[in-house]
Amino acid sequence: MKSSDPLAKADSTAADAAPAGDKPRSSFLSVRDLHVRFTTLDGIVKAVDGLSFDLERGSTLGIVGESGSGKSVSSLAILGLHNPKKTVIGGEIHFDGVELTKASENEMNKLRGRRIAMIFQDALAALSPFYSVGEQIAETYRRHMGASRKEARQRAIDMLGRVGIPNPERRVDDYPHHFSGGMRQRAMIAIALACNPDLLIADEPTTALDVTVQSQILDLLGDLQSEFGTAIIFITHDLGVIAQTADDVLVMYAGRCVEKGTVREVLRDARHPYSWGLLSSVPDLGGDVDIPLRPVRGTPPSLLSPPPGCPFHPRCDYVARVGDDACKTSRPTLTLADGRGSACHLTADEKAEIFATEVRPLLR
Amino acid sequence: MLRFFVRRFAGMIGILLVISLITFYLFFAASGPDDVVQMSCGRFCTEEAKAGVRHDLGLDKPFFEQYWVYMTGIVMGRDIGDRSCSAPCLGYSFSSREPVTERIQNGFPTTLSLAIGAIVLMILIGVGLGVIAAMKRGTRTDKVLTTVAVVAGAFQIFILGPLLLLIFVYETELMDLPKYYAFTDNPGKWATGLILPWICLMVIHMAMYTRLTRSAMVDALNDDYVRTLRAKGLSKRDIYIKHAFRGALSPVATILGIDIGILMAGTVITEFTFSLNGIGRLAVLAVEDSDLPMMMGVVLVAAAITIIANLLVDVAYAVIDPRVRLY
Ligand SMILES: Nc1ncnc2c1ncn2[C@@H]1O[C@H](COP(=O)(O)OP(=O)(O)OP(=O)(O)O)[C@@H](O)[C@H]1O
Ligand code: SF4
Ligand SMILES: [Mg+2]
């Protein structure tokens, strides 16, 4: 298991994994009916409410959804980073044969940073101001790989080089406040990748970056993925980034998955009114300027007392198309066929028709 | 860096000049010179005799000339009457006729030892308890530690000091009366001789450090970067001690800077309570006797110590937090 050559990781993790025969056909990461509830002074916040998805080695799941839809909260649940005193977690998270919601803090600590790593949203706040960037990379490597200080420092330099920081030998001793925003984000990525994780959760890793840097980072993640077979969960607001990186897409709304499918399916043939809203709110700079931008109207629902029925109904344009006021009274379930589906009462034909006639003309 | 020290040194000289001028002035405004002359001259004193004394002590010269003579004496030494007083010359005591520099040199190690020992204990115990309270926050240990620290902090030297003496010296005779031994002669005796006043000062001051360390660490633990550390799988020990504690050090340094001043001021009470002969006692005697050179000497030394200590605290800030630059 202990190996001084990080490149030998692929073999070593195979040995760590549970015997393959135990759980045939189960995914590398399998989230089942995940619930995350926070106890607050105002009441119980249902931040994640029945989320399920699967992710295979070497593939990328894009998660989109507006602010507050529970993307970060779900990621933190996978890493087990919620405060257990204030949080109730329900459902199951299977990672390579381990049930993470039942794992001890000790077991989790061996996975965190080593096999499951996370790139956080706000890199300035997410880095310690008191230690050099190099040390913050090296300490992870020392902890998990049993490396010496010297080896870990060399690893830090290598990683900084790999994420595209010029002069890594010199910058390794710089502190986060010496770095620009984009460099900090790269440093954050270098920390996450220091131990060649099997699962990488990237929470808006490129939001703060300009387009050039952004595409460099995306390329880097792609390279690592093909080299190490890393599974990636890519959280973003940017459907363009999703199109570039993801294999599958999960659209989140109010703590639930409202639509799931491959990138092609969701971006080219979305089946949920909320996804339509997201798609048509993307500005198309190369396209026809006469087509108005259509942001999703209204505001996200309260997670303390979510609306009854479909949580999207106060903002949905198609409530009237569904009979019996079902949108306001009964909650649509996500039914999947071949991993594809949407949680909406509209019939499949209606969805296809509306998409073709009302949504597609707005897209490029 | 060099500019920082040059600037701070210049600032220190400036502050010392102002302080010395004020002390000098207050002495004259409170008509200290007349008292001195009267005392030296005795009860049956003619005006001529008084004038003689006045002249001998240099008190007949104009205010600024006296001040100038005094200040240049510190830098270059001077002759006073038929005695010569070499470089850091602080004059001769009006009452005992001994060189002030010498008396301060005798008292200074006691005061410094008192302060250093108390500070080390205060930080070790006060901060240490704070770290433990933070690591066990919300538990009984946390509550007990926080309460103990607060109760201890409610004591005053003149209550706790005699109490400690009563218990450890007079009743149980476990210890001798506090006494100063030179550290260079016998470090063991130095420590045991001063342990009671150290404990007394430590108990009184530690509450602040315990509470502050605890709350600063708990704050740091809520910072976003700690979440990253946990996501990296670091051990609890690394997260608390290596990271959160580091974040708590700056506020501790701030309080330490303030406490050094308080300790200097409180050394008067401490030395009287424990019958030690440091510069606190010299200060009180000097005021009682209207002994200007003695007063000036003590004030300048105490001010210099406080300023240097605060300089060290500022350097500590920069060492603790790489975002702080010295300039
Ligand atoms: N510790 C907490 N206690 C109470 N509520 C919380 C807590 N953490 C998150 N929430 C709430 O859970 C909801 C989901 O938050 P989350 O951070 O997952 O959103 P997000 O989808 O990542 O949004 P963004 O795109 O802005 O990052 C929000 O309404 C948030 O206020
Ligand atoms: S279920 Fe009704 S309200 Fe919800 S998205 Fe579908 S049409 Fe809109
Ligand atoms: Mg988020």
From TrEMBL, chain A:
UniProt membrane topology term: Peripheral membrane protein
Region spans: Disordered: 1-26
A GO MF label: ATP binding
InterPro entries: AAA+_ATPase (IPR003593), ABC_Ni/Peptide_Import (IPR050388), ABC_transporter-like_ATP-bd (IPR003439), ABC_transporter-like_CS (IPR017871), Oligopep_ABC_C (IPR013563), P-loop_NTPase (IPR027417)
Gene3D superfamilies: P-loop containing nucleotide triphosphate hydrolases
Bias type Low complexity, positions: 9-21
Gene Ontology terms: cellular component: plasma membrane
Nucleotide-binding among keywords: yes
Entry annotated with the keyword Cell cycle: no
Cellular compartments annotated: Cell membrane
Main location group: membrane
Domain ABC transporter: start-end pairs: 31-279
Biological process according to GO: peptide transport
PANTHER family reported in the protein's UniProt record: DIPEPTIDE TRANSPORT ATP-BINDING PROTEIN DPPD (PTHR43297:SF2), OLIGOPEPTIDE TRANSPORT ATP-BINDING PROTEIN APPD (PTHR43297)
Family, per entry: Belongs to the ABC transporter superfamily.
Protein name: ABC transporter ATP-binding protein
Originating organism: Yinghuangia soli
UniProtKB/TrEMBL annotation, chain B:
Localization of this protein: Cell membrane
Membrane topology annotation: Multi-pass membrane protein
Ranges that cross the membrane: 9-30, 112-132, 144-170, 190-209, 252-274, 294-320
Any Pfam family matching the protein: BPD_transp_1_N
Domain spans labelled ABC transmembrane type-1: 108-317
GO term, biological process aspect, one: transmembrane transport
One GO cellular component term noted in the UniProt record for this chain: plasma membrane
Key words, A-Z: Cell membrane, Membrane, Transmembrane, Transmembrane helix, Transport
PANTHER family membership: DIPEPTIDE TRANSPORT SYSTEM PERMEASE PROTEIN DPPB-RELATED (PTHR43163)
Family indicated by similarity: Belongs to the binding-protein-dependent transport system permease family.
Protein's name according to its UniProt entry: ABC transporter permease
Source species: Yinghuangia soli
